[in-house]
Structures are given as C-alpha cells and as structure tokens.
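Subject: Sanity check before I submit

Could someone independently write out the structure tokens for this chain? I want to compare against mine line by line before I put it in a report. The sequence has 212 residues.
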Amino acid sequence: MKGNSERVPGKNLRPIAGRPLFEWVLEALIDARRVDHVFVDTDSEKIADEVTARFPDVGIHIRPVELHGDLVPMHDIVAHLASVLPGDAFLQTHATNPLLTSTTIDKAIEAYEADEEHDSLMAVTPRQTRFFWEDGRPVNHDPAVLLRTQDLPPLMEENSNIYIASKDFILKTGRRVGPKALLFPMSAEESQDIDEEIDFYVAECLLKRRHG
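---
Independent answer below. Compare away.
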C-alpha cells in the first residue's frame, strides 16, 4: 500500500462503505482458510500505524527507500518481498480490491496447488464485448458477421486481484507471473479494482449492496 496515489489521492486510507479501504481486503485475507500469514507492504508509516491499530496480528514490511516512488516496477517490489518474507509460496493482492472474498482467495490457492503444469496463477475477468485495435482492426470478432456479444470468444483481462507464485519462481525469474500462468477467472463484480475516481464510487455501491 503506497502512501501516495496519483489518480485517487489517499485511496488506501480513504473511507469506503464506512471503513478505510484497506480493511476490506485485509479482512478477506485473514478469513481465508488457506492463507497462513498476512503481511502489508507499504512505504507509509501512517498506513503501517493504521493497519497495526486495526489488525495487530498482521505483519508490516516497510519498503526500503530505493523502492519508494510511483515509478518503481512492481516486479522489483515482489522480488524484494520474496527475498525477505517467510513462506514457500506467495499470494499478492491489493488494498484496491475491496470486493475480493475469502472464498475466492481459497479457491485460487486450491487451483494453484492442484495444477502442476503452470508456474504461477493470475486472476482474470472474462470480457465479451467487441474490441478494436487503435487502427480500427477488430480484435476478437468479424464485423461482417456481427455475432451477439454473449457469443464472442471471451478475452481475459488481468484484474490485479490475485497473483500466486512460489518463492523459488519469484527469486529465479524476478516475476510474479510466468509464461505458463494459470488464469483464474473471477466475476466482474468481485474483481473491481480501484484505479480511477469512478471505480471508487462503483465499488462503494457494490459493497453497500452486498452488506446492506
């Protein structure tokens, strides 16, 4: 969790549906049966203090100075965490995924552990709509045929909700997703990721509908 957010300022601590944003995903991780330890990686002492006050059993890792800033590649952060945190396999998610549930987290871990052909797991959202390249060429459909959108072959959108890989894989490749990643589909509702201001309002509406 970064202290600074360019597109939605202060989003990780911002209240959503009556609670700070980070609380929702941390609660899901803590409730997941297959997660052994939960750590928060942050560059903010304020975020660290807020997390500790609400979740005293959650570990805190303060990023080293060389990993501060908006331009640091996520691969560098993941590789650093794999080198300093305990565990044989890591699941990464973000505070910006407030609708992610413990049930889905457990299912993703089970899918990863049951499949020996893949080197990692990445959560995706299937999208069935007509996509075009910038030059107007169709991506996943034939404009001359115009199939119904529900009949189009789905494209898989990386949704930033779940990444799983072994410590050995991360340290060896410096990556969280490999060329043989297992794609783990999630519903569009649960996979909401807050990148823009409008995403915040959509997620809040969905949280209120879910929890009353």
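---
OP: Matches mine. For the report I'm noting this point. The chain is about 30% helix and 20% strand.
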